[in-house]
Amino acid sequence: MVTYPQRDRGTQHSGLSSIERHLSWLCILWLLPILAARGQAPVPDSPQIEERVSAMMAKLTLDEKLMLIGGDDFSVRALPSIGMPALKMSDGPYGVRTYGRSTAYAAGISLAAAWDPEMARRVGESMGRDARARGVNFLLAPGVNIYRAPMNGRNFEYFGEDPFLAARTAVGFIEGVQQQGVVATVKHFAANNSEFDRHNLNSVVDDRTLREIYMPAFEASVREAHVGAVMDSYNLVNGEHATQNGGINNELLKKQWGFDGVVMSDWGATYDTVGAVNGGLDLEMPRGKFMNPAALKTALASGQISQPIIDDKVRRILRTAVRFSFFDRPQQDDNISTYDSGGRAVAYDAALASITLLRNEHGTLPLDLTKIRTIAVIGPDAQPAVVGGGGSSETMPFVSVSFLDGVAQRLGQKVNVLYARGIPSISTILWQTHFDGLTRQVFPNANCSGTPQSTSSASQIADWKLEDWPPAKEKRCVRWKGTYTPAREGPYTFLISAAGRDAYRLRVDGKNLLWRERSEDQTPRSVEASLRADIPINVELEYVPDTAVDRIGFGIKATDELVSNEAKTIAARADIAIVCVGFDPTTEAEGRDRSFDLPFGQAALIKAIGAVNPKTIVSVTSGGAYATADWFSSASALLQTWYAGQEGGHAFADVLFGHSPEGKLPISFELRWEDNPAHDNYYPQGGIPGPQPSVAYKEGVFVGYRYYTSMQKPDLFPFGFGLSYTSFRFSGVRVTPKAGNADSSFTVEFDVTNTGGRAGTEVAQIYVGAREPKVLRPVRELKGFQKVHLAPGQTQHVSLKLDRRSFSYFDAQSQSWKADAGSYRLQVGSSSVDLPLEAEVVLEKSAN
User: What is the pTM of this model?
Assistant: First the structure.
């Protein structure tokens, strides 16, 4: 937004005659269209926009219209006849990644952990500038799908388990992006809460659950932030692919919410011409495989689709281009640096605001430099920097700061910093594993039956790679058979990594040990088995690739050799050991779900380091929760760093050495995966039974903390939780008015005081629950929050508003939001379970 310095009001017209003042105003009025064209924010809708779009529509031929609604790789096609340039798109959501290196910001889950819509706005503004520097019109961000279970490979892109927190974060981010003259694209619409077999998975969700849990962030993006584009997801929703689901695209999104922008497909997420056209899809990306002139003309001629529907899609694209001034100014702003337009500082602030302290026994943190001479930094996530997860969001920054770099740079020469990776990489294990008498047979079918086409000898199975290859034209099955001889007795880790939709089955001495069905899943898998020294085992690995090349690796290593002696030695010598573990782009990414356990060898690493150093600090990089039972007691402190972006190392070091952690959990941490309310329903029963596997969201609205608090089930760390280096007190709650109808606005006021000796940050949270609900409802739901920064002894008065939706549930029968009359409990505190203040509101009349 352009701002101008304010003159002194008493002298601003001094020396100007009345005529001169009138001429000045005329000049300003004449300049307004030019200023608007040069401005950045989208202009408000108006009749003039529609008139301009109609004039352009009249000039377009049918072929031009039909070509426009099929993309051109990462662009909307240019229309020279009306002067429209090609409109560039770029992947997000934590960096403008498609056109080379760019600033890598803290991931979406990190922004949610910051509990700060203004921070999300700053990140959005900075990403918008990065986009303008590269001439990008559409930023394919943010992702707002709700965190349902920890294994979803794209959880790190999203804003956590709560729809209110996700909505507030999304609105801030979108407004920041679009203020820079860039279209934000909210995704993935809808009920896309798993990466498991995402092209085929059918999400079966009832109306109430959809509207209360999985839709509010999309709704706020449209109704409040006026997002310019919505991206449909790969999956099916209640039996219909999202890209051809008229119920969610036409009825809900466009009709009920009034969305007048562009509905585009995810890349390759369109499956039918007529279904997509009539189901509300406006733009097929990356190109018109189904929505192309030939297919569309055939459907028009047969009457299966109509010209007005085509025109509406074209109008939406043109309207968006006009609103964002794409006809009136170059999108690339050469005054903005592609290297750094202030993004590095924003990236640091976002990382610092998100790091969450989950455990701090005996005041291990912050570290006291006067008592430290040697620090050991250990683990696979310590170096190099793990900027983010994998897939279309993976951004390559110009500069990144690892946790090891951050610690070393912070300390300089004051402290001796030692480093060891601690455990081998996947590739190292694969290349170090050798088999005896190994043969490789290739069969022209999917079950390794009959006579092999070829037979060859080998000593390793180490062809693992994550590259995308075209699907194979013909089925094939590869079988390796051989023996492996362990050097000594004990437990061994068997590790297999494959890519894409490749399937495999490992048999050891005739028994199934590891397997994976044919699904879109690339998670490396491991299992332990006890072996005897010098006793060969028979291994047989059958592999069914989805491509014409092998993308699989199989390795075996003694479990007690996973942790290096070097790591244990330096940990024993150090005053403090910092173990950096978690996931990375190879283990948590788009296109596959991850494991609930930490990646192979990491639990053993934490236990081994904790055994030799009682002051072991563990940091975990992840998009969500993970198993802790095996190693939790070995960690004297636990920091959840999420995916902290390119400046994560600096932020991490600052938290270690004194900056009080600001992050709060945007998710619940379960004790075990079995305790999660989605556990029994997250994967299709029996794996993948057919071409359209279904997952029923049987937990309904009881997702995350709504389940744990309502059903009084224990969790490891509750939603909203996060420790600080200081302490806080909540006091003096009052609500005005205390009673009113459902359309009243209620103000909740209270004080937050820093009662400790350090500056710190608290997130004040308000939860609402009906005392005697007429339908089954959670006992409490987040309906307001505010982040406050306080000096020691400082008190801040907090005032938050509650509106009609704060008390409402979605009534499926009437298809409306309903707030029943009655008493509602308001609880205020620092997490979903630490709520020291309580008040009451009475709704005197029901409303829907």
Answer: 0.92
Give the contacts of 26 (CB within 8 A, at least 6 positions apart): none
Instruction: Output the six-digit token pair for 656.
Output: 């270690």
CATH number at residue 732: 2.60.40.10
Of 304, 323, 342, which residue sits at a domain end?
Answer: 323
* Residue showing tokens 């002696």: 565
Tell me, yes or no, whether 73 and 212 share the same domain: yes
Is residue 187, in this structure, part of any structural domain at all?
yes
pLDDT for residue 848: 67
Q: Please write the tens of the pLDDT for every residue from 799-846.
A: 999 999 999 999 999 999 999 999 999 999 999 999 999 999 999 976
Q: Say whether both 263 and 135 belong to one domain.
A: yes
Domain contains 480: yes
Determine which helix (DSSP H) or strand (DSSP E) holds 570, and give its type and residue range.
helix 565-573
Query: Could you tell me if 44 and 179 lie in one domain?
Result: yes
Contact 717, 668 (CB under 8 A): yes
Cα 94 to chain center, whole Å? Answer: 9
Least confident of 31-35, 183-187, 572-576, 695-699: 31-35
331 token code pair: 């999108």
Query: What is the count of structural domains for the chain?
Result: 3
pLDDT at 688 exceeding the cut of 50: no
Q: Are residues 119 and 257 in the same domain?
A: yes
- Give residue-wise pLDDT tens across range 14-32: 333 443 434 343 343 343 3
Residue-number span of the structural domain to which 312 is assigned = 40-86+114-140+172-323
Position 690 scores a pLDDT of 53
The answer to whether residue 702 is domain-embedded is: no
The answer to whether 774 and 819 have CB atoms below 8 angstroms apart is: no
Q: Is 757 exposed, middle or buried (0-12, 13-18, 19+ CB in 10 A)?
A: exposed
Instruction: Work out the average pLDDT over 615-634.
Output: 98
Find the mean pLDDT for residues 389-402: 96
CA distances from 704 to 161, 491, 502, 625 (A): 6, 36, 32, 11
pLDDT tens digits, one per residue of 328-342? 999 999 999 999 889
What CA–CA distance (Å, rounded) separates 223 from 210?
Answer: 17
Query: β-pairing, 746-754 with 416-420?
Result: unpaired
> What is the per-residue pLDDT across 100-153, written as a single tens digit (0 to 9) for each?
999 999 999 999 999 999 999 999 999 999 999 999 999 999 999 999 999 999
Which residues, other chains included, contact 160 with Cβ-Cβ below 8 Å and sequence gap of 6+?
Answer: 109, 112, 113, 146, 147, 166, 666, 667
The predicted pLDDT at position 525 comes to 87
User: Which residues, 6+ apart, have CB-to-CB distance to 305 below 8 Å?
Assistant: 273, 274, 277, 278, 296, 299
Provide the sign of the torsion angle of the four alpha carbons 237, 240, 243, 245, taken in this order: negative
Average pLDDT over all residues of the chain: 93
Last residue of a domain, one of 323, 340, 364: 323
Query: Which residues, at least 6 apart from 315, have a Cβ–Cβ distance to it below 8 Å?
Result: 53, 57
Point out the residues that are catalytic: 266
Write the pLDDT tens digit of every residue in 219-267: 999 999 999 999 999 999 999 999 999 999 999 999 999 999 999 999 9
Contact 500, 486 (CB under 8 A): no
Report how far residue 542's alpha carbon sits from residue 442's, in angstroms, rounded to the nearest whole number.
10
- Do the domain assignments include residue 672? no
3-state helix, strand, coil in the chain (%, to 5): 30, 25, 45
CATH assignment at residue 446: 2.60.120.380
Is the domain of 316 the same as that of 454? no
Q: Which residues pair with 503 in a beta bridge?
A: 544
Judge if 306 and 434 occupy the same domain: no
Clarify whether residues 440 and 554 are in a common domain.
yes
- Distance CA(815)–CA(817), nearest Å, equals 7
Q: Specify the residue for token string 């590869």.
A: 478
Query: What are the backbone angles phi and psi of residue 583, rounded to the nearest 5°?
Result: -105, 175
C-alpha 681/C-alpha 831 separation (Å) is 27
Cα–Cα distance for residue pair 366/654, rounded to 1 Å: 9
Task: State the pLDDT at residue 519.
Answer: 65
